[in-house]
Design brief:
alpha/beta; nine-stranded mixed beta sheet; 2 helices; globular; Leu-rich_rpt; transmembrane helix; membrane; ion channel; transmembrane
Length: about 210
């Protein structure tokens, strides 16, 4: 390799790094969390596993944050009051939080939320008649894997969520999927906290046009 070629590679590498500069700083209640600012004006607040934080306390400090990672904090049930101040978030990760119930109005003011992670909680998402209408209509990505799977489980009805195109779920046997708009479907079962009870996939994906 010539000297000229080596010089070009070094310059390209340096330029690429400069385009992806990140700033990391303490943030949130009493600077308990960590924020990462990327040059593309994306700010992620990481409050994962802080334990003693309340969700309502975190949301007071959201400001220009676009993504909130708040798993493993045992928040319990969710209401709109708990999330006051978080309405402009684009991504929310609520995995491992012992969430068993979400009030119908919890996300009614979330106009920009594209990703919601509700995995590994206690939500009855696979029970017959589970109401998914509380989910924001603008969701693109939803994760519900790792929630309890009862006897006679049913796949949740997500027909009214026109923008949803990526779903991570547990595999539920003897259940028909009606997910005509989904472009990416992940059926978990590789982790200890998730299940995959699929026995036969015959005809399950006839409605998937993409």
């Amino acid at each position: 390799m010539s000297i000229l070629q080596i010089t070009l590679i070094v310059c390209m590498f340096a330029t690429d790094r400069s385009l992806n500069v990140m700033t990391v700083y303490p943030c949130g209640p009493n600077d308990t969390c960590t924020c990462t600012y990327e040059k593309q004006e994306r700010i992620t607040m990481d409050c994962e596993g802080r334990g003693n934080l309340k969700l309502s306390e975190i949301c007071v400090f959201i400001e220009n944050v676009t993504s909130l990672k708040a798993g493993r904090n045992n928040f319990g049930n969710l209401t709109a009051l708990h999330l006051k101040g978080c309405e402009n978030l684009i991504e929310i990760y609520f995995n491992f939080n012992q969430i068993a119930h979400i009030e119908p109005t919890t996300f009614q003011d979330f106009r920009h939320l594209h990703l919601l992670d509700l995995s590994r909680n206690l939500l009855q998402v696979y029970s017959k008649g589970w109401d998914a209408s509380f989910l924001p209509k603008n969701l693109h990505t939803l994760k519900i894997n790792g929630n309890p799977i009862p006897d006679n489980a049913n796949f949740p009805n997500l027909d009214s969520h026109d923008n949803l195109n990526k779903l991570t779920s547990d595999g539920v046997s003897n259940t028909a999927f009606n997910l005509s708009r989904i472009a990416s479907l992940s059926l978990s079962g590789l982790n200890l906290e998730t299940q995959c009870y699929l026995i036969n996939l015959k005809g399950s994906f006839h409605a998937l046009v993409n």
